Amino acid sequence: MKHILAHSPGGLASRLGLYGTRFPTAMTVPTTKILAIGTLNAALSPDERKAIMPAEVRQTVAFYLDGKIDQWWFRQDGSGVVFLMNVISVSDAHALLEALPLGVAKRMTFELMPLGPLYPLHVLLQAPPSLAVLDAGTDTGEAQ
Length: 144
What we know:
Blueprint: E1 3-5, H1 12-15, E2 22-24, E3 33-40, H2 46-65, E4 69-74, E5 81-85, H3 90-99, H4 101-104, E6 108-115, H5 131-135
Antiparallel strand pairs: 1-2, 3-5, 3-6, 4-5
């Protein structure tokens, strides 16, 4: 298994005794959210917008109120939306998004990215280093 070297010499990691800690490049964490980046396949005409968008917004709000969508944003370039979803599988996210009016009409596609906890934080759960390690090099010679 390949590993990457974490941190640089002389930094906080070195002072904490973590310099040289190796983390696997293939880390497994549970999926806790799905990032869904939606892109319109083509711009909606004014008539299409009037016909589709009221139902799209209502269903999106319903997903939010049901806890399926945590946060959402409009893409600045006007090409779609971004949802942070409270589902744990890509297939669940896909099924929900395809049920939205733009999904049913095949007018929007989504890139779905599973997200999970930041793996390297497990280092913080290890036994804390001695305070002598933290104070190394910071002693001013004055009595405390």
